[in-house]
Amino acid sequence: MASSLIASCTVLSTTNPRHRIASTNNIARRSRRFHVSCNAADDKEGRVDRRNMLLGLGGLYGATNLILPDLNAYADPIQPPEFKSCGAAHEFKTGDPLDVNCCPPVSIADIVDYKLPTVTKLRRRQPAHRLSQSNIAKYEEAMRLMRELDVTDPDDPRGFTQQANIHCAYCNGAHDQLGFPGLDLSVHYSWIFFPFHRWYLYFYERILGSLIGDPDFALPFWNWDNPKGMQLPAIFDNPDSPLYDANRNQDHRPPAIANLARSDITDPVQTISENLAVMYNEMIGGVNSATDFMGQPYKAGDEVPETGMGGTSERGSHISIHAWVGDPRNQYNEDLGNFYSAGRDTAFYAHHSNVDRMWTIWQKIKSDYPKTISDTDYLNASFLFYDENKRLVRVAAGDCTDNTALGYEYEKVDIPWLNYRPLKNAEPVKTKDIARGALGSEKVFPVSLTKTVRVLVPKPSKGNADDLLVLEGIQTDSTKPVKFDVFVNDEADEPNELDKPEYAGTYAQLPHRVHSGKGKGSLRLILKELYENIDIGDQDSVVVTIVPRINGKDVTIGGVKIVPAQR
Length: 567
Ligand code: C2O
Description:
Blueprint: E1 9-15, H1 17-24, E2 32-38, H2 48-57, E3 112-113, E4 123-125, H3 133-152, H4 160-171, E5 176-177, E6 180-184, H5 193-211, H6 268-285, H7 290-294, H8 312-325, H9 347-364, H10 376-379, E7 382-386, E8 392-396, E9 408-410, H11 431-434, E10 439-440, H12 441-444, E11 447-448, E12 453-458, E13 467-477, E14 482-488, E15 503-509, E16 518-526, H13 528-533, E17 541-550, E18 555-557, E19 559-564
Parallel strand pairs: 3-8, 4-9, 10-12
Antiparallel strand pairs: 1-2, 5-6, 7-8, 11-18, 12-17, 13-16, 13-18, 13-19, 14-15, 14-17
């Protein structure tokens, strides 16, 4: 590296290739800037290495008299990928290139900044289990035509395989981040999760509508958050329908009830109760800021975000449905059980329609924190899609916040989890009464989750507070599905139900690829409401119980602490 400046930092002036490309597309941006590269080991956002790499491509200037600028000045929104540089997608388990090419067709026409059409009438997305016969017929006809394009013109970006490939390319490393060759772009486990998937469904829906000449066509949603909708909707389970996909878990065909908690409980009543408890927790009880729900920041140059950086809903019900539908007969749980293949299942789009609906519901739930993210690195994060006229268009996260501006709404149905806050226990548990056998954290960590871990954790202050429970240094085998649940002051040695006041949250991972094959991350759980639920009183420590559910042997936890939430 060039000459050293302060400690182990170098300041370099370079032209960022991303900005060169962007400016030809009429985005006014600074084209020349300074980069700081530090060998700090603790850059928590993993941004440093990649910038070093970028710098390696530009001119290097020893900078002995520069004042170190604020690192935040270099923050940047995620940029759309360059389709012509799309490469092989990777297999999660081995990191090997997949034998499918999921790159989009390259357009020679210019990229167009997408303008939302004026809305005259809202398309209404309805629950898939209550679709009328005529709407089912329309949906099937549209899907038939979309699948037909696969055969008549495989390069038509509106074809079903091309639509499915969008997900693969944006999720399995086929696209690099613009300006960061070799750095995978990933639309999961961060604050771009909701906006990316909203735009993706938006164009998918408009393509289906245009194929049948019906501008009012709306995708249905899989209403898995309501007991009435917790089975795979019947319209997807008819082998004669273009909505059918054979690559699903055969044990989970109707009338099996989806298990949002991914527990081993089979009793249907308990399953439904836990589903509602999970929904309440990820939508309300375990959320105390916009990024808790939406996901943590992900900016240009950042490494692929780890599971724990995802928002509560993405990490929770969203992942659970993927895993529940995916076919265990397939090596990588295709279709829905793996990101690269998920878009090949028509149920994906109904599933994500409900995920998107959760965003709209959360926006309206009363809260004492703001629901919007005003960081321009969020608002300006942008993506490319082909629209229903095969134009390559650019859209930004900040332009899809309001679903009605995008011309659609969700039919109102009962939301039974809204009032599913766990009931308090008649007698509050005292930490000292249940602390037997729980060790102090210095004695416990790091620990491999081969069995349930009970640990005594000090609180930063007595009584109720806006605290965070942080599980740090979580190392997982990223090629495996992993899940564990976390409880606070639970009397049971092995808590096995989630619909209780002591349930704090869950860590669930779908297999995904990182360069080293080892996932690393942390999990932050909000304790504010849990303290009230368990009547924490003036206790100054709690017992935290961590219960492995899936592949605990592939998880190591570095430490657990409780800290005041900083907002
Ligand atoms: Cu991009 Cu449900 O995943």
